[in-house]
Amino acid sequence: MTLQHTHLSKKNISSTEMQRSNTIVKPPACGKLITVLSIDGGGIRGLIPAIILEFLETELQKLDGSQARIADYFDIIAGTSTGGLITAMLTAPDDKVPNDKDTNKRPLFEAKDIKEFYRKNCPKIFPQDCYMVTRKIKSLLGPLYDGKHLHKSIRKKLKDIKLGDTLTNIAIPTFDIKQLQPVIFSSYEMKEKPYLNALLSDICIATSAAPTYLPPHQFKTSQNEKEHEFNLVDGGMAANNPTLIAMGEIAKQLIRGNSDFPLPQSLEYRRYLVISIGTGECKIEGKYNATKASKWGFFGWWFNAKGSPLLDIFTQASTDMVDLHLSVIFKTLNVETNYLRIQEDGLERTLSSFDKATPENLDHLVKKGEGLLEKKVSTVNLENGKFEPYMDKTNAQALTEFAQKLSDEKRLREKSTGPAEDRCRCCGCPGPHIFAKLRPCYSSVV
């Protein structure tokens, strides 16, 4: 992509152009909060957020009925790699449900379905048919896995569904190895960059294409007889924890004056309600050390009896820095209860693998996800790299509280009358105010 593709133009774009007509979520201008869900990358460890999301959706159903779905409550859902696949599963519309009203469409998957999808397909996507030495040799000649079953299973489920068809806004990062820069498939960006409106299946295959594990994915999109080519690998190369990407996509809409987001409230972190779910880490003290690493060459850094040092360093560093950044900001502004990071940092070495899809390993990951719900709400301590509790409540209790906030926000928005364009740009109340463009109305400073 050229610079002109990524430049944030400040030209006037009408709210009608920027809004997606098929979203089932009323815009933030109809309520008080901006809701964000983010799901990390991590291969088969996607089972951990699958368990967390199943719990959250169950809590929402207790409040709003059995038809409640995750996609009903979030302004944007972001996912990297395996998190991107989960994002697509949560937001893709079910074409088997005959309904002409977009607002009544239902997602293709319930959160509880994701766990079984992983348990059924992961052993076929990552067949355990060779020994460690064979794997090392195989990885020198090409990717460990051909990706055929991954491609087949994703295309079978998502069919011809495109980015623009999702039931709420999503953001899925990838990395273009031809252009050497990240590509974010964001439904907010489609009007500005229509070539991003690709098949969800292509996007999921691309964001999951971890180098050395699965082959890069090439595909093209067409717009007005013009083709745009993508040459993509795993979104973890750009952002394994995509929380900041999700919030950045919202920031772009503020720059462009999207009336879905009232100003100046949308600039305040107290308006954000953010859930960020990790896929687990293996932070064994003494796993690596400089004395041993000083003797490593290519093989030592990529292949090690205790894991893949380069991959561990790369993914864990970027993942934890995003969490640290947001934790500090929300705490500084005294709204730390609006940000919930759920992460397991005590995975055993075998469980931390991206691809060890044995039945026993998958069962253990499910148990880790269930156990994580009972752990105290924690955040990363940059001094020692460990997750440490900072609230006297469990992740399950925190999710229950978040479910109540999400439900309250949804009901508030549903009570709103009239489209977002008819509401005050500065506070979101019915308007518009005559002097909204000159100064905030009084309600915005209360």
TrEMBL record:
Q: Motif GXGXXG in this chain: where?
A: 41-46
Q: What is this protein called?
A: Patatin
Extract the GO molecular function terms from the UniProt entry: monoacylglycerol lipase activity; phospholipase activity; transferase activity
List its EC numbers. Answer: 3.1.1.-
Instruction: Recite the lineage of the species.
Output: Eukaryota, Viridiplantae, Streptophyta, Embryophyta, Tracheophyta
Q: Name one GO biological process term.
A: lipid catabolic process
Which InterPro entries would you find in this protein's record? Acyl_Trfase/lysoPLipase, PNPLA_dom
Tell me where the sequence motif DGA/G sits in this chain: 234-236
**Residues at the active site:** S81 (nucleophile), D234 (proton acceptor)
Pfam families, sorted: Patatin
List UniProt keywords, sorted A-Z.
Hydrolase, Lipid degradation, Lipid metabolism, Plant defense, Transferase
User: What does this protein's UniProt record list under function?
Assistant: Lipolytic acyl hydrolase (LAH).
Which residues are in the PNPLA domain? 37-247
Q: Which family does it belong to?
A: Belongs to the patatin family.
Record's comment describing the protein's domains: The nitrogen atoms of the two glycine residues in the GGXR motif define the oxyanion hole, and stabilize the oxyanion that forms during the nucleophilic attack by the catalytic serine during substrate cleavage.
Where would I look for the motif GXSXG in this sequence? 79-83
User: From which domain of life does this come?
Assistant: Eukaryota
Question: Do you know which Gene3D superfamilies this protein is assigned to?
Answer: Cytosolic phospholipase A2 catalytic domain
Q: Which organism is it from?
A: Artemisia annua
Q: Does the keyword Transferase apply?
A: yes
According to the UniProt record, where is the region Disordered? 1-21
Please name the CDD domains in this protein's record: Pat17_isozyme_like
